[in-house]
Amino acid sequence: MTDDDEIRESLADFIHEMWADWMVYLFHYVSKGEIYHIIDGDKVERWKRQMRTSYRDLPEAEKQSDRDLADKLRKYFDDIRSNEEPS
C-alpha cells in the first residue's frame, strides 16, 4: 500500500467513525418506533449494523462510500493549498 493509499484509508476510517458517532446520537434521540416511520426499516437495520462495525471490518463495497468522502476531503484541502476555489 502506498503512502497515498494509507492516507486515504486513514481518512476513510476517521469519516466512518464520525458518521457512526452521529448515528448513535441520532438514534439515541429518536425513539425506535419513530425512526421506522421516518426511515425505511431496511436502512435503519443496515445503518445500525454499520455504526457498530469498525471501518476495517466493513465489507469492501461499504468502505467505498467512506473512501469517496475521503477523496472529496483530500481534493478540498489540495484546492486550498493551491489557492483554488474548492469544488
Structural overview:
The protein has 87 residues and is an all-alpha fold. The chain has one domain. Helix content is 77%, strand content 0%. The chain has four helices and no strands. It is elongated. The model has no long low-confidence stretch (mean pLDDT 89).
What is the total tally of β strands? 0
By DSSP (H or I, 4+ residues per run), the number of helices equals: 4
Question: Can you give the helix content as a percent range?
Answer: over 70%
pLDDT under 50 segments (min length 5)? none
Which word captures the global form? elongated
State the oligomer: single chain
Order of helices and strands: HHHH
State the distance separating the first and last CA atoms: 28 Å
* Strand fraction: under 5%
Rg result: 16 Å
Structural class: mainly alpha
Give the total of domains.
1
- What do the pLDDT scores average to? 89
Described by strand count, sense and barrel closure, the largest sheet is: none
Question: Could you write a compact summary of the structure shown?
Answer:
The protein has four helices and no strands.
Key phrases:
87 residues; 4 helices
Question: Helices and strands in order, then pairings?
Answer:
Elements: H1 3-29, H2 32-38, H3 41-51, H4 60-81
Helix pairs in contact: 1-3, 1-4
